[in-house]
Predict the 3D structure of the following.
Amino acid sequence: MTEYLFSVHHDYSKPLFDSDADVQKMFRDTAAFNERAQEAGIYVFAGGLEEPSTATTVHVREGETLTTDGPFAEARERIGGFWVLNLPDLDTALEWAAQASAACQGPVEVRPFQGE
Amino acid sequence: MAVDAAPDAPGGAHAHVARVFREESGKAVATLVRMLGDIDAAQEAVQDAFVRALEAWPRDGVPPNPAAWIITTARNRAIDVVRREATRESRYRGRAVIEGDDGTQADPASAVAEAIDQPVADDQLRLIFTCCHPALGMEARVALTLRLIAGLETRDIARAFLVPETTMAQRLTRAKRKIAAANIPYRVPSREELPARLDSALAVLYLVFNEGYAGTTDATRPDLAREAIRLTRTVHALLPEPETAGLLALMLLTEARRPARFDADGAVVLLADQDRTLWDGALIAEGQALMLDCVRRGRPGPYQVQAAIAAVHGDAARFEDTDWPQILALYDQLFALTPTAVVELNRAVALAEVRGPEAALALVDGLPLERYHLWHATRATLLDRLGRTADARAAFATAAELTENPAEREFLKGRAGH
């Protein structure tokens, strides 16, 4: 079994959803996906994130702490939410990722955690 | 080859090891990956077995079944590794065989010993689909297949891709690292997954066959061509999709000409000059039967069209009997499916036969293929037919410089008047 990070990448330079109904559908589909993952016994952790503008970046260099308002480095694409799922192999992970992408309406990056 | 005539002499045994490595290392690695669950460990075990062969065979003579000797030696080496790593609790402890489905641990050494008795027919297919996994970049897929399944050296693959050897070594390392870290499974895809996974596997097999048809550094590599055909047969038996049949037919119809492609001195003989009675009639018949079946199924694709072109050549008892209008029509169809400059170049050869060398040269001159030796060779042939001898010789000379295939280079140098 391998633990994978499923991260959802959104383009925050434009509105994420066309309508409130779309947002509601995304929440419903994502909740249903979470339920399926829990029933399958693969669910470890998941969460949606606030806007990137709410982020603070901390970087300690040569003993000095630099604190910056906002995300690290400029980019249009930002992580909007993520799952940590425990799955037998990459093929299974890619199947679940397709369902996750459909539910949250965004591209999902699948990345393995380092082994212990 | 002269060295093979005396396999018991030290030099002969060396050459024997090299030949067995080319022919058998892919199969041995595939089986060892299943036993060890780790590509690097499998490669290491197989390489170690060949190093031992280099010591043992000149001393004791070449064993009656060299391939079995290699796999057994690699297996013994793998048992040592698994035993040592298991006590160290390393992540390379052969998870594929020593952990049962219920997570229980068998005795590692006996598990590896048992694993070799399992049917190995699917091992290469497993390794192909792992190497051709869509989660890997296309360049990585081809490189892995040529390295692991075809047993090519990293430097030869680097040369084929026109990149430095260190770049290719990094590409291979990164790809293997991803297979291990992302846990890309070592298995044949399910029936539902298979069609989507097939395209990239066929593309890789096609490239292996091409390396076997005309090697990067060898005149020809019959072993690779044979391997590509064997692997394509296996894939075709598992999933008889029209494009799989098309690729197999293309390989068979091309391979059929092998006996006529070189003369007694190993020099290249062009299609126009080949003794067609030397062509392998059985392979042609098999390829044409596959093509008939493809036509009946009515789902054409690029491999089927290329096979159809080869089949038209196979139908002509003499070069003069070739149905060039039919071949040109097929190239039109191929270009509609895959509009690439290389297809245009091949189409130009047919165009020269139907509409004359002038029209063909105009087409060839517009193609951005200055780094491709066959672009220069095709131009040279057309220039020659137009009576522009000096230009033709210069183009043949450039073509000769751009290929490292010794037989092609000799042929092109001869045409250049060197």
